[in-house]
Amino acid sequence: DAYLSAIEAANEMINAYVAVTPEKAREMAKASDARITAGNAGPLEGIPLGIKDLFGTEGIHTQACSHILDGFKPRYESTVTQNLWNDGAVMLGKLNMDEFAMGSSNETSYYGPVKNPWRAKGSNLDLVPGGSSGGSAAAVAAHLCAGATATDTGGSIRQPAAFTGTVGIKPTYGRCSRWGIVAFASSLDQAGPIARDVHDAAILLKSMASVDPKDTTSVDLPVPDYEAAIGQSIKGMRIGIPKEYRVDGMPEEIEALWQQGVAWLKDAGAEIVDISLPHTKYALPAYYIVAPAEASSNLARYDGVRYGLRVDGKDIIDMYEKTRAAGFGQEVKRRIMIGTYVLSAGYYDAYYLRAQKVRTLIKRDFELAFQAGVDAILTPATPSSAFGIADEDLASDPVKMYLNDIFTVTVNMAGLPGIAVPGGLDHKGLPLGLQLIGKPFDEETLFKTAHVIE
Ligand code: GLN
């Protein structure tokens, strides 16, 4: 009830929820009470969560914040949300996001932008919460849920977490099942939590993660007790500092944040080592070929026949065209066009195949660093703090917007786990995030190291 009233009071302003489900929440909470009384409470019993609109939730609004999925209510539940409900969690509603998770500011949503609960000191300019999981991050930051699900294809958990002073972890590719989550770029997509602190993120990920026969890329490995990692010593751990992340024009404050992170880890007994990830500079361009290529293929299914919106036409081809023209927003159309282009005969080898080769090189950079004895890598999470809604500079230049993902996309390209943790405030009083990157399936090290920083 407290969370539902908070949503009622603040959501109109923040626009974090695109659907609130009070009846469902109360019904689930009642069932939780009964289980608690009966003495068989689950690990998340009664915990109220917000769910990103990308997760299929049975009988409930699931539109990936796109017009083309108007009215779509799946007849299935995603594996990740089912895992949370099985552990006793309660659903408050569906959270705003960039359309089909394409964006870094939550401004491509059909439901309008989300406002970051933070503002710069002395300013009343509304800021973006980051994207694509902007609703998840804003809802957690504004206490409109105790925690939220999110997804990360190229930074969409970590960048919004950094912009809102929350904690977000993208686990290793394969750690969570992608089944029942609307697909964007299937070889990069991963689900993970956004939470108020590292401990909460650990509890949520433990519940979300599982092998799943319905997703053959999910991995059959035991899910460790992440909570147990919190508070463990990092003495003697080797933390890599990749020199290629010191990008041109990086604000001094971001450099200072990074140095502060280094100092905290050193104080806790970690050893800091300089490393090189030489192919870093190709990650962003390669990502913006691979992700649109996969998206163009995944989004072919929205044709006005099977789901959501249909705009009638004079014949079936005309109906497809009119539906897709009306149903997709500008950024989604841009991605479909880029993706179709790089996959087409004659361009496939020059762009798509080359991007896949670059991806292998990026992955190898990380493998070599880990083989040389590095346990985790520390970088800034983003090149700046939150920027303004409808920022003129960014709105007119998609490439500038893509630059926001410079520190996060490498992690998806390599399939590695990455966590964003608050590192302090900038001169405007806005949160800045640090990122820790780990070895495959070693989320435990990230939790214990991030806990030293928070
Ligand atoms: N900003 C990136 C993009 O627009 C990442 C999105 C994501 O991780 N879902 O593709």
Report on this model:
This protein is an alpha/beta fold and 454 residues long. 39% of the residues lie in helices and 14% in strands. It is built from 16 helices and 11 strands. It has an 11-stranded mixed β-sheet with strand order 1-3-2-4-6-5-10-11-9-7-8, sandwiched between helices. Strand 7, helix 8 and strand 8 form a beta-alpha-beta unit. Helix 9 crosses helix 11. The longest helix has 24 residues. Glutamine binds next to loops.
Instruction: Report the total helices.
Output: 16
Roughly what fraction of the amino acids lie in strands? 5-15%
| Biggest beta sheet attributes | 11 strands, mixed
How many individual β-strands?
Answer: 11
In short:
The chain has helices at 2-14, 22-37, 79-86, 134-141, 158-164, 198-208, 226-229, 252-267, 283-298, 316-327, 330-343, 348-371, 392-395, 398-402, 409-414, 443-453; strands at residues 17-20, 48-52, 90-95, 147-152, 167-170, 190-195, 238-242, 271-275, 376-380, 418-425, 431-438. With 454 residues, it is of the alpha/beta class.
